[in-house]
Amino acid sequence: MIQINVAQLLKEPIGSTRSYEVDEPVVIAEGDRAVRGQVNLIRTNRGILVRGALNTEMELTCSRCLTEFICPLSLEIEEEYFPTIDVLTGAPVAIPDEPGAFTINQNNILDLTEAIRQYTLLAIPMKPLCQEDCAGLCPTCGANLNEKQCQCPPAPVDPRWAKLTILMPGKKSKR
Length: 175
What we know:
This protein is mainly β.
């Protein structure tokens, strides 16, 4: 969990800043992931704006060859956190009516864990690839074409598309 006590920052004037190094495990999907980087906290008129550049890694499955691999992810976080109590009086404060707004708890602790989890899940590629030129699996025998070339015969070309084979490099037209 990445938690920062912001009581002093909430007492300071608008525009005051603090910087923090992050090097903590965060629970994301199926386990803990190390998150590293720096976050800057800026006092706003409503709360605290968090901006950060963080890095983490996720174990993903390649969408072509189905092998598991470690995918590095870069996160650019920017979220505003709103206090739930007034730091000077201890009286409850109305939270802005924004869906999914992050809050600072009654002990003036700003918890970055949920924001980092959400940003990490959004940073995961829709079609993760173990390598840019992943060859995938053979559609006939299922062999991983990154590891070996299978002995399956090539699939027959649909006659409706046969003329287009002359545009493919390394193919000779049969006229």
